[in-house]
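Quick one: structure tokens for this chain, please?
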Amino acid sequence: MERQILAGDVGGTKTDLGLFKYSAGTLELVREHRYATAKFDSLEAVCTDFLGPSSTVNAACLGVPGPIIDGSAHATNVPWELSSTALSRVLKGVPVRLLNDLAAIAHGMVNLKPAEFVVLHRAENPSAHGNIAVIAAGTGLGESSLVWEVDRYYAVASEGGHSDFAPHDADQIELLRSLAAEFGHVSYERVLSGPGLWNIYKFLRRESHADEPAWLSAQIAAGDPSAAVSEAAIAGRDPVCVKALTMFCDIYGSEAANLALKVLALGGVYLGGGIAPKILPMLTNGTFVRGFLAKGRLNEILKRIEVRVSLNPAAGLLGAAHVAAAML
């Protein structure tokens, strides 16, 4: 029996929606669309626009940022009241689930094909059903995990990106001091995100006492400052940018290892989010892995953990669709 599923990946800037067919245990994407979140007054309005008058669904699941408590999402950067009950009412009473966005990405990771990953650290004989850690640097920093139970993985959401940043060398200690003076509490998200890379760059530019090149200033002023820094670093055009992105990758590896140890991720570590695919040349040059394998007595365990970068930006949408299919 064929059924239809509404899946979504909601963010402060964009909202991706997808309509899927589900039959005989197989999901098939019918159509998808990306919306500017700010152009709609509510989640219900954007879903109604996407489905139109003729499409009906049997279940819906949407990944949203922030914790989900009693069916309502507490998102700081989405200007909507997010409620599974309210959305279900608009969708004629079908079952609806709101899922933490990193939990949705986690479900998507285990449904991607091998060709949709780049391996940063290969492990021999990884555990078939071991716990999995998922970490995603983008506009913010998201973290989650997957735990195997009986015959499937279950996602465990977290707000681990807001835990305290722990520097592990002299430069990072000075970075922490600088950011603490500016922000008070310094979380990993303050350094391991798009805005975080910009924070690192500004600190290193001040410390270097080197003038910012005019061409770089122009690129920074014209668009996304973090993108300008990462592009200059990958091209090797500015030594401060190179040092900033190198420090970023080192911190990324270290925090990925922290998460792997906390959940004993013998099933692997998966990097999601929008930043990792864009900085692959730096992630694959050894800096990330050195940061990952810098846990002293626990390095032998970390050597057994494979680390992969997802190249599929729709992992969250796919994960939400699989969760909705399980609700039927």
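The domain at 114-311 is CATH 3.40.367.20 (Hexokinase; domain 1).
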